[in-house]
Write a structure and sequence with these properties.
It is a single chain. By secondary structure, the chain is an alpha+beta fold. It has 2 domains: 4-52 and 271-407, no CATH class; 60-265, no CATH class. Helix content is 53%, strand content 20%. The protein has a 6-stranded mixed β-barrel with strand order 3-4-9-6-8-7. Strands 2-10 form a two-stranded antiparallel ribbon. The protein has a two-stranded antiparallel ribbon with strand order 13-14. Helix 1 (4-16) crosses helix 11, helix 2 (18-51) packs across helix 11 and helix 9 (265-308) runs parallel beside helix 12. The longest helix has 44 residues, at 265-308.
């Protein structure tokens, strides 16, 4: 392989066929470039999809009541379903081994005021477990605890943006802020891995808001996380049981999809995984088609070169060259052209991704990149492609009969 004479011949052949070598090498490099960029784009889309959910626990289930679309059990359709505190307790008792964390949810808007500063924000009234379900990161103070729930304390955990709007550079912890003219003590400041809009929210104890709004036990929804050891099948089976039992509890027809709405992240991740897998297969298919075009081009140029060197090959065989030496010469030249061209395409693609990829941050497309396994796979493809491209021409060269080659007229 490291025979100096063989490599001199290879470089001599390349120098004598500069244009054909360049055009053929370009097609291989372009194929690898497209393959890497397509796969990186699929990864970017995958990252974008998953980033939409990275501010919640991946094993989350969200339950929202709706309006029935069918008459059932003596009730007319268009009946509004109302969840209550008892539904949370019922789930706890019915599925003790299936859930890990659970919280009621109430959604309200509020006009907040601190001294001369005012603003309008959304409030989620929740239980302490909600911090884990929504992966809320408390940077100052603390989150809501069970004592706040038991006493119905007027306390609040505010988002980073709310703190900046109302308190500027002041430390908000322990300060009182008015929500719709009611004083609440700030006990914590949080950040969220979602967008900035999530940090313009406020958390408060659910019991506090139930007292404020008519001393009720009504809630707007339930959030929970299922057993983290569950796979997709088990998680979907659990959410199905959850839906069935809540429909029976609230007299909703089993086939009614509007009365009780359940959103299981496992199903969303499954759909995303299936979609991105299809995109990845399409990307690989298109890239391979382009690469095959380059391989065919290399095969053609090697056939042409062998035809031009028929007499030379005949003389080699007449002087004692064995078929294996001829095959090695042709294969090395083919692999060299393919590998060099492909590596250039690979380096350009990875270079562009390294420079531009980290700066691309959007809801649907984030940090397109390729994994080391893709780079290794592409390298193997290059070597194999070069061998395939040169195999038929090499076999043809090895089978040239010296007497026929010496009579060949060029």
């Amino acid at each position: 392989m490291f025979d100096r004479d063989i490599w001199q011949e290879i470089f001599y052949s390349i120098r004598n066929n500069k244009l054909r070598t360049f055009l053929t090498g370009f097609s291989v490099g372009w194929g690898i470039f497209i393959l890497v960029m397509l796969l990186a784009s699929v990864n970017g889309m995958t990252n974008g999809f998953y980033s939409q959910f990275n501010d919640d626990a991946t094993n989350s289930i969200f339950i929202r009541p709706g309006t029935t679309s069918k008459a059932y059990a003596g009730f007319e359709k268009d009946r509004r379903i109302q969840l209550r505190n008892s539904d949370v307790e019922y789930i706890k008792k019915s599925f003790p081994k299936d859930y890990e964390h659970i919280s009621a949810r109430m959604f309200r808007g509020t006009s907040a005021r601190y001294k001369a500063e005012t603003g309008s924000y959304s409030v989620q009234a929740v239980h302490p477990d909600h911090q884990i379900i929504e992966k809320t990161i408390v940077t100052k103070g603390r989150y809501i605890n069970m004592n706040d729930i038991a006493t119905g304390a007027k306390v609040a955990v505010i988002g980073r943006k709310v703190s900046e709007d109302l308190f500027k550079d002041d430390d908000p912890i322990g300060k009182f802020v008015e929500f719709n003219d009611l004083p609440f003590r700030v006990i914590g400041v949080f950040t969220d891995e979602g967008d900035d809009n999530a940090e313009r929210g406020i958390y408060a104890p659910v019991t506090t808001y139930q007292k404020i709004y008519g001393n009720t036990d009504e809630i707007d929804g339930i959030a929970l996380t299922y057993n983290s050891s569950y796979d997709l099948t088990k998680s979907l089976e659990f959410s199905g049981r959850l839906e069935n039992i809540l429909k029976r509890r609230h007299s909703v027809a089993p086939e009614d999809q509007s009365g009780i709405r359940i959103w299981n992240y496992a199903e969303a991740f499954s759909d995303i995984s299936s979609f991105t897998t299809v995109l990845r297969v399409i990307g690989i298919f298109v890239g391979i088609l382009i690469l095959i075009a380059g391989i065919v081009g290399i095969g053609n140029i090697m056939v042409f070169i062998i035809k031009e060197r028929t007499k030379e090959i005949g003389i080699r065989k007449a002087l004692g060259a064995v078929p294996g030496q001829i095959i090695k010469l042709v294969l090395l030249e083919s692999v060299f052209i393919t590998a060099l061209s492909g590596f250039i395409g690979l380096l350009i693609a990875t270079g562009i991704l390294a420079l531009v990829g980290p700066s691309i941050q959007s809801p649907a497309f984030t940090n397109p990149s390729v994994s080391p396994s893709i780079v290794i796979t592409a390298t193997i493809i290059l070597v194999v492609a070069g061998m395939i491209a040169g195999l038929i021409p090499a076999m043809k060269a090895a089978n040239i009969k010296p007497i026929v080659a010496l009579r060949d007229d060029k």
